[in-house]
């Protein structure tokens, strides 16, 4: 039994020794050039920030990458604006595209989203002991306006009393 343990120990050290030998096997690959096409990148820059919930980002990314020109209703000579509605469970975005595929306006409504920490802190400071009952996140985007309107409509309750709050994306109660 002693010999078996010594034998296994020696084999283990030999394997560890071989695993320390460095071998340089490098394969070189030539990659094709990558083109990222984001015609509505400015839309994403304006509507998304570090506080934007993940579910909201996913649907906004779909909106930004949607190609109106591939839609069967698209006709370059027919209309100059197209309204498209994107819907998921408790999420809806109504978008107006121009005939070139650029986003002109969007109205976004998301229910029961995960609230940013700033919003929780603001409610806890101003309304201690209150519970959040419902929340809705609303975004209004206009291409020609610099600022995007982002509002959280939150219903809070304590005992038998309820209040409706409007909080901006920075956590300030309006």
Automatic annotation (TrEMBL):
SUPFAM superfamilies: BT0923-like (SSF160574). It comes from the Bacteria. This is Nicotinate-nucleotide adenylyltransferase. It comes from Algibacter luteus.
């Amino acid at each position: 039994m002693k010999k078996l343990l010594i034998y296994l120990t020696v084999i283990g050290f030999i394997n560890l020794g071989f695993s320390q030998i460095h071998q340089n096997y490098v394969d070189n690959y030539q990659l094709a050039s990558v083109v990222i096409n984001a015609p509505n990148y400015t839309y994403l820059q304006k509507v998304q920030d570090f506080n934007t919930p993940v579910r909201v980002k996913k649907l906004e990314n779909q909106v930004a990458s949607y190609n109106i020109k591939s839609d069967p209703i698209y006709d370059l000579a027919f209309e100059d604006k197209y309204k498209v509605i994107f819907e998921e469970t408790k999420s809806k975005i109504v978008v107006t595209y121009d005939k070139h595929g650029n986003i002109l306006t969007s109205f976004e409504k998301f229910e029961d989203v995960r609230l940013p920490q700033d919003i929780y802190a603001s409610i806890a400071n101003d309304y201690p002991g209150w519970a959040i009952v419902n929340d809705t996140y609303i975004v209004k985007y206009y291409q020609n306006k610099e600022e995007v309107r982002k509002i959280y409509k939150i219903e809070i309750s304590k005992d038998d009393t309820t209040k409706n709050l409007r909080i901006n994306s920075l956590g300030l109660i309006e």
